[in-house]
Amino acid sequence: MVGALAQADNLSVLLVITGMGGVGKTVLAVQAGHLMEDRFPDGQLYVALRGHDPGSALTSVEALGQLLRSLGVRHDAIPDGIDEMARLYRSRMAGRRMLVLLDDASSVDQVTPLLPGGNGSAAVITSRHFLSTLPGSRIVRLSTFSTSESLRLLSRVAGELRVNSEEAAAQTLSELTGGLPLALRLIGARMIARPNWPLQHFVDQLQDEHRRLDELGLGHSGVRATFASSLNELLISPRVADREAAVAFDLLSLVEGPEISADLVSRLLDVELRTAEGRLERLVDMHLLDSVSPQRYRMHDLLRAFADERLSTSERGAERRSAIERGLRYYLAAAWQAHHITYPSSPRQPSEELDLTGLPAFGNQVDALSWLDREYDSIVGLYKLASVLPGLAPRFGPSLALGLFGYLEIRSHYLRMRDIFDLALASGRPSDDLVTWGWLEHDRAVPDVEQGHLELARERLLRSLDHFEAAHHVPGIARCCSTLSHVCERLDQLDEAIEWGEHGLKLAHEAGDLDVLGTNHLALGVLYNRVGRTVEAAAAFKASFDLAEAAGNVRSLARRHRLVATSYLAAGSRDQGIEHLNVAIRLYNDLDDPSGLALAYLFLSRAEVDGRNYQQAERTAQEGLRLAKLHDDTYCQGWLLVNLAAIQDATARPTAARQARLQAIAIFEADGMTAVANGLRKGQAVTENAVGGR
């Protein structure tokens, strides 16, 4: 920016500094002026245009009057018409080298007559508008501060020693203010006024979203007032589209994910997508929203808090509830559309009628999973808002959880699975719908199994079985038997496990449920392998493969080959295990499934460790770790780090092994797998079959 102003020696320079309210446009412009004083020996002019307040914004005539008086023109010598004033202004500026700062402009029309013209002078304009049609201008768009920049600002305002002594709290303050310079300066000022308060106390005050804006200034210079002045421009605009954009702004507070999709907003507003996109783009023009990609947007956290305040009044309760319902109907239908792609043989069914109009087009499983990756936080956030409104939790919770099951299982998001199913189970009672509650209990057991809480999983599965039996739902009973067989096998209760597996196999035959039939064959094959009935195991495995191939379910086939591989590896048949892992890897590659590949590489790396091929084992584990990070598969990351630690121990690299193990412990603790984390911390061996059932 300073470099651009330096070019004013040979030409007229026009800079527009734009950004959201409170981002520091005026401060930057003033600082640049001070730095460039020697470049403009004839002085600097400043006019506060007050453009963010349409009721008191200066007209071009009023601003020209100020400029002319600053240039020494007597009041009675200033002409009446704007054209005459502009000519007199340019004639007075001719031959001078001056910097003109036009602060807080509202429009191109407002500032055009105020530009100095001619070479040697420069104009710096600050505005909450882009002013992109201003001829010859260079636009500098300011963004909020990074964490390091925020800490530097806090240190300058409140003192470096104080900030450094509580760096973690200072970083949290940066996060809670979203790096907005105005908010950081206000917090810094409060820190100066309260020198004996620990920074953590300021953090605690800001943690409450309902009072966060109160803590960031209550007067006209506070964050709330700054945002309100921007929005007010839309609210009092004579253009209907502007006023509708202001309504859209308030409803954006309902979207709690990192990004906002135009598709969702069209449902919240109950308008066509094109209309919703137009309103969102108007908010972008006003710096009340950021555009991150076509039809994808991001809202600053403090702006979201401001919008939430406006929407959460009692007068707007019905409007807010209706928007939440529309958004959830959209998300529910989209989740089930994705579920039918990610889990085509699923016996689960939604209990809420689906609105299938205007849903995203999923060309394949990758599309469905990627869409859910982007939208998941918003889906859960919207449901949490609904869960405190009468009648909405039982209406949407169970169906939403079941619709998300396939996605969560494929992505190995077991902590998320636990949380969403807990919310669903808390929304009603089994008597509401025995079959739905049977599936909720069954699927809620899955994260218990994966986190090693096997007895808890068994209790849930027995409750699920009771619900299915009371409803005479044979597919559910058969599935419960299959899962109970797996849990009992993990508990080393092999006789009971075989009983459950064989009973489930019989029921699956009777129900004609080929998917459950294949799952039961697989479970029995694993059990037969463990008790030495290898011929029966091989036959059961083949039957399971044949059923998946006949159904065209490539993902299920890949998973079955991986599980068969782990069974053979556990039995000491390393070559057979690697053979099936290679088949699984090929299938996962065909599916473009990084989570499946990561898990297959985990077991392949273990097999290579068993063969003492440590160099290859490490390469395999590192590749698995890279893939697991693509979609935040923390479950798989943890186990791969455990495997890397074992490899590094075996190759005399204790420091690297310790670091990998500490990373794994942190992941397992965050995912609720405390028993595994404690075992690693104590240096105990982790059971090899802990992830064998996935």
From TrEMBL:
UniProt domain NB-ARC: residue ranges: 4-160
Pfam annotation, one family: NB-ARC
Protein's recorded name: NB-ARC domain-containing protein
Native source organism of the sequence: Kribbella koreensis
Lineage, opening ranks: Bacteria, Bacillati, Actinomycetota, Actinomycetes, Propionibacteriales
